[in-house]
Amino acid sequence: MDEIRESLLKTSIATKKERIGKTLSISALLLIAIVVVSIFYFVASKGLATFFVDKINFWDFMTGKTWNPSVNGANGKPETGALPMIVGSFLITVLSAIIATPFAIGTAVFMTEISPKYGAKILQPVTELLVGIPSVVYGFIGLTVVVPFIRNIFGGSGFGILSGTIVLFVMILPTVTSMTVDTLRSVPQYYRESALAIGATRWQAIYKVILRAATPGILTAVVFGMARAFGEALAVQMVVGNAAIMPGNLISPAATLTSVLTMGIGNTVMGSMQNDVLWTLALILLLMSLVFNIIIRLIGKKGELK
User: Fold this and answer.
1) Of the candidates 125, 211, 221, which has an alpha carbon nearest to the alpha carbon of residue 172?
2) Which residue windows are coiled coil (predicted)?
3) Is the domain of 209 the same as that of 90?
4) Closest-CA residue to 91 (of 145, 165, 37, 153)
């Protein structure tokens, strides 16, 4: 009797494996959470030092148009206006998304609705290949092809917002296209059949039913592409011109948050004011990434098919 009772109370091997699995899963989750919180804390502590340690005014930093932290301006304070980089980053991000969106939707419609067979055989591998190309290759192609092209057509040096926009358009196009394809494929088949059954043509079914049903997913793809474009550093740095001044037009040299960061972070002393202001730019990038993620989640939650 005691042996039976002991065997019933004894923990089985399956139970032990389940506990080990749960422990490993929770440990991995905690590790990721700790890493994310640590990154936010580290970047925030360094970035906020600009305002609390170096006593630089927040609004002067966000709205100032002159960036030269090593030099004091007419008011006797360092020239730390980040507005040119903020404007440059948003301009390149928005313009590249505006150009990429119609191309991505058209390609996705062809792959899913018009010719799924050739789309899967030809365009799908091409899209996957473009996603895997390193950003430095895109930047080198932009430096070799796009910048001379812009120089010959519009004059000037060829470096600027327009060159950065073209390079980023090519970079985010496969990402937006892949996500749009997945969204269109997730539209229930009976949506198509119902539209055709009531007399709609193929194109009417596509743009009045399928694209409308997939709009939240397409918006999510566009915002995801914008998030990638906003954080891209190397390729943009190679073609944008890296001049931290307010962009007067699309073909004059400009700068983005990432390009100034990559150029300056290795040339400053840790803990100095010149280093702190770069960390503040990094904090702006981190917060913008958070905003993009929140927008993606809100769109995805609102657009769930019921």
Assistant:
1) 221
2) none
3) yes
4) 165
Q: Which single residue is written with the structure tokens 């007419």? A: 74
User: Cα–Cα distances in Å, from 17 out to 6, 26, 30, 155, 212?
Assistant: 20, 14, 20, 68, 47
**Domain of residue 229, CATH code:** 1.10.3720.10
pLDDT band of residue 146 (cuts 50, 70, 90) is very high
Report the b/e string of 258-274 with b at 16+ CB within 10 A: bbbbbebeeebeeeebb
Q: What is the C-alpha separation between 125 and 137, in angstroms, rounded?
A: 19
Under DSSP, is residue 70 helix (H, G, I), strand (E, B) or coil? strand
Is 150's pLDDT higher than 90? yes
CA distance 75 to 139: 39
The answer on 98 and 49 residing in a single domain is: no
Per-residue pLDDT band for 304 (boundaries 50, 70, 90) equals low
Q: In whole angstroms, what is the distance from residue 103 CA to residue 112 CA?
A: 14
Residues 40-97 have pLDDT tens digits of 999 999 999 989 988 888 998 999 888 988 888 777 788 888 999 999 999 999 999 9
